[in-house]
Amino acid sequence: MPNIDVLSIELRSILENLEAVTINFVLSQGFINLNKPFDWTSHDCVARVRKLLRLKRVGHAGTLDPAATGVLPITLGKATRLLQYLPENKAYKATIRLGVRTTTDDLQGEIITSQPCAGLSLAEVKTALAQFEGKIEQIPPSYSAIQVDGKRLYDLARQGKTVEVPVRTVEVFQIDILDWREGDFPELDVAIACGSGTYIRAIARDLGTILKTGGTLAALIRTQSSGFDLADSLTLTELETKLQAKTFQPFLPDAALQHLSSVTLPVTTAQKWCQGQRISLTFDVREIVRVYDEETRFLGIGQLQDKVLIPQMVYEPIS
Question: What CA–CA distance (Å, rounded) separates 144 from 313?
Fold first, then answer.
């Protein structure tokens, strides 16, 4: 006859292991709104999160330069497949120093020219700055992650190679002046809302060119990115503390997808969807949508086209 105490211990062990597996699954799915520290690369942050969560599948949205801080969305598990559907708009707070030009268009590079411009007025700066709102053409910094002929620009720059950097069109929605500090090398604090691919370093450089003073980026904080806000971000230290206290919860996989419309499927139809089948619908629109079941569980991303919901990314719901 089985020993009841032994069976009780074994059952408790099974339940604890099951609970641990469930917790690990929940922690390994979704997003972290990380406040990237100064002098860390985006890859450094991904590596640290991998180690803290003991999770291999970790990614990030929107690379930040080592000298920049602020919002760096981190993806966990299957959420990495949602990167392409995140909103692209971003926002920054930047400090631009005038009178200085550098090789990297920020203070981390070597100084190319330095000329005091104490006579520069805020009115002149405002007039020049207005030229950067709307759709503008921009040449990315020589030290950037953009590839030319399969090679990163920063690698080519470090090798002393000069290449023609292709001009690109970006969009700046709004620039607000936050502060102006006079001096031989005056500094301007601005808030910038822009589209994906906009280099704030290039705006600092080009503003200095227009003013004929030279300009470089002195500081940069990303305040919004891919649907996440700085006010809701976590530092790596805070993340580690929450993990130790077992209070950490990632943002749900659909947290940053609220800009997309949604479709709710009945139980039987949802099962077909999860098997990768196309679903016939009564309404005829063309757009990318979030898909849910009747229990409001996120099932993935679909393409609505010709009254058919076509699976683009089927996401296993968290029970």
Answer: 31
